[in-house]
Structure formats: structure tokens, C-alpha cells
Design goal:
elongated, 10 helices
Amino acid sequence: MKALIDLFWFKYSQLQYAVKSGDDLLISILDREIEPVLTAIYHDEASCVADARLQFQFVLDLLRKEADDAASVLRQQSVLQSLSDRYFAGENGNILGGKWQQAAAPVTVHRGRVDEGFLNEAILDCLPDRIAVITPDYRYLYTNPVNAARLDERPMDLVGRHIVEFVGIQRFEQRVKPNLDKCFAGETVEYTFSKDVDNRVVVVRCRMTPCMSSTGKIIGAILILQEIADRRRSIAA
């Protein structure tokens, strides 16, 4: 349950960014991705009190977020009633007659495969390398926990922020922007660079791959950053 809820709020933050930037295509894509996650949260039968509490809290949080949207408020009210009927339908007021049922099979959320250039957070979150997705206006659409930790940020807090905040204007103009522009044009770009970290030289390999929508349009660039051994230091040793 928690994983589904976390996935929803991540997609929700991306959708808010897409709305602010007026990207109709991205809004359409995220709308299609969010709906099955929302349905899965609503329909999942909690197998314990903690999961049921998460469900109720999620609906209340969404009610607060969407308080100005009458249609959303009515939907959440209906969901709250449905959850109440599901868990408190026993004749004596006990939850499910005093017994918890096994959770129903989870709804499968379909997302593209990363090896085809699509964005698949479930895979990217588990990889050990630093990974981010940058939009054509050079802002973070996604970052995995490893990359966020290196930047001393939380993944959610990076969404919508300009990459220049983290690389600096000079490096952005001279190296990052030209390579991103090539990627946005459809190229896969690879290059290496070195930097000083804690008085030691770290060599970083950067790979940029076009991030495609389900319709084949490029909506960003997937960045994979790998730290590699500094061969110059090995030779000197």
C-alpha cells in the first residue's frame, strides 16, 4: 500500500509541474499513468489495520490537496464511504466482522521499459548509478534516490528545479546544455569528465539517452552518471 501511495504522490508532483509549464502532451501522459495507480489504491483491500489507516489518510490528504475541485471532492467523499462500508460493515461494528481478509491481487501499473528509452521509475529507483530525467527546458522531471542523495536533496524536492542550480552556469553553458540539446534532438550522448571531491579526483562517465513518450515524442533526456576509477592515479601509483 505504501509503495502505491508513494508512487501516486511522485506522479502527482510531476503532473503539477507539467500543468505549470503548460505541457499538454506530458499532462496527457501523466493523467493516463496516475489513474490506474489511484484505482489500485482505492480497490486494494487492506490486510491489516496499518494499511487501512494508510488508505483513509491518503483519501483525506487528497481531499485537502483538491479542495478547490468540486468533482474531485465528490469522488473522494464517495471513496471514503466505500472504504467505510468495506471495513466497518460487520453487524457489531467490527472491522470486516472482526476478521481481516487477504488483500486482493494488486492492479498492475503498466509503464514503459527503460531499455527502449521510456521512463520506468520502478527500475531506475533500484539501480546503483546516479540517474535523472531532464526536461527540454533543463529541469528535473525525475531523479533516483542515489542522485538525490549526492545533491543533498530528496527526490521529490528536485522535481521542477533547473539543473543549472547544481552544475553552475559555466559548466551548464559549456558542456551540459550542448550535450542535452543533442539528446533532445534524438542522439545518445556519452562523455567523461573529472572533478575534485574531498581532495581526490573523481572521474565520471555521463550517458544521455532520449526519453520517449508512448507516442514516440522525446519528452526529456535520461542521464546516467557513473563514477569510474581514475586511471591516471593508478598509473602514477
